[in-house]
Amino acid sequence: MIVTAGSNDISVSKHESMAQRAYRIIRADIISGARPPGERLRIEMLKTIYDIGPTPLREALQKLSTEGLVLALEKRGFMVSPLDLDEFSDLNIARIEVEKVALSRSIALGDRQWESRVVAATYLMNKEDTALLASGNGVSDAWEAANAEFHATMIAACGSKWLLQMRDHLQDMCERYRRSSISQSIRKTGDGKRDVGKEHAAISNAVLARDAGLACQLTESHYMKTLDRLKRDLRMLTTPQT
Predict the structure, then answer these.
(1) Is 208 part of a structural domain of the chain?
(2) N or C terminus of the chain: which is more exposed, having fewer CB within 10 Å?
(3) Which is nearest to 154 in space by CA: 200, 197, 194?
(4) Distances 230 to 33, 123, 160 between C-alpha atoms, Å
(5) pTM of the prediction?
(6) What is the Cα Rg of the chain in Å?
(7) Which residues share a beta bridge with 73?
């Protein structure tokens, strides 16, 4: 049985229902890859894993199906949505466009307190990028957390909760693809290494210089490099070997 990322989190707030808890934990496990693409989500199995009853589990799965993370199979229960390269490309188009709007607004509206957050996020990102490059191993949870915080901080001062919500949802959908890829490491041969540390530093410098045009350009390039890499990796995962 796959060890899940969310099933250890058994805390329930006073205002969180069991259905909300089930939704939160299963969603996190799908995005992290603990519940892999194509996995059948049988209620009896989920009851054992998450210690939650069938009714809240079904409510959670129905909600996840409206987000596209789960497929509702007619008379056959539920399944984690498979990976689809066309969808992944489309998600990145939307993600980049929303991110650029939020980033431009954040650079225009951000105050000194926001700048200090950018500096702090950049410092942590640099430490994790350096550790990743030195280790030569796969991407760690610490790097994942620093990367998420870095990009979220850049757009945090945009002044629009709807932009932030849209961006977060698209980020989560893209994250599921990235984490499901066989290539979660900087170790590459032949086609060259990516220096993501330099990419992050360049984005941060442009943001702190209040150069919205350059910051948006660098952010788009950063995400497109990830898209191109993962499209190749996902093709390796989904193309039958001869």
Answers:
(1) yes
(2) C
(3) 200
(4) 15, 27, 30
(5) 0.76
(6) 19
(7) 77
